[in-house]
Q: What sequence folds into this?
């Protein structure tokens, strides 16, 4: 009987802690919304994020190889998933944050995660089918993103490093591009093998 009473105490403590977490999360959401309304919405940075969410897709459509559209689009979709997972992990672990966001309660940088990175990754995937050229392009792209684009976003006040350094991003960009190309090559190989 005493063992059962102890278990009830533990469950009650767990419930109390969950209630506190819920209250803290509700406070976070309210503060985040207030900040967004007062300091982010309709700023020049917000308009910039809105433009880069939409406009690059027009140019991508002009440049994409329509004969390989499904393949390239799948690569871009996998890029979006990988980038969202990395972004979620980074924000959740207080590695970085986004003071300016398009939407108040989204912890992610939608314009970058949905548009910019998938389009850049898809363009490299489309343009460099040979592994050697693809790896070189991935290194150049990773260097440009980590050491030029990220500092510019910090300067613009859109991105803030908390417990992160630019050079941490460099290998992650390369890892994502190479891993996704491996996955796509495997899928294409399986498809060709099963088509015959």
A:
């Amino acid at each position: 009987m005493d063992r059962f009473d102890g278990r009830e105490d533990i469950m009650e403590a767990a419930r109390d802690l969950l209630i506190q977490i819920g209250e803290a999360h509700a406070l976070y959401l309210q503060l985040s919304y207030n900040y967004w309304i007062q300091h982010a919405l309709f700023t020049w940075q917000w308009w910039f994020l809105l433009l880069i969410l939409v406009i690059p897709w027009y140019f991508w459509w002009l440049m994409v190889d329509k004969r390989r559209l499904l393949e390239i689009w799948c690569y871009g979709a996998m890029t979006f998933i990988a980038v969202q997972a990395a972004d979620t992990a980074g924000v959740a672990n207080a590695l970085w944050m986004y003071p300016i966001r398009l939407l108040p309660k989204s912890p992610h940088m939608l314009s970058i995660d949905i548009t910019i990175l998938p389009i850049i990754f898809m363009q490299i995937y489309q343009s460099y089918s040979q592994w050697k050229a693809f790896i070189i392009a991935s290194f150049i792209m990773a260097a440009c993103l980590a050491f030029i684009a990220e500092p510019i976003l910090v300067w613009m006040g859109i991105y803030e490093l908390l417990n992160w350094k630019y050079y941490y991003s460099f290998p992650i960009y390369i890892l994502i591009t190479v891993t996704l190309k491996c996955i796509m090559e495997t899928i294409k190989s399986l498809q060709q093998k099963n088509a015959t």
In short: The beta strands are 96-97, 160-161. The chain has six helices and two strands.
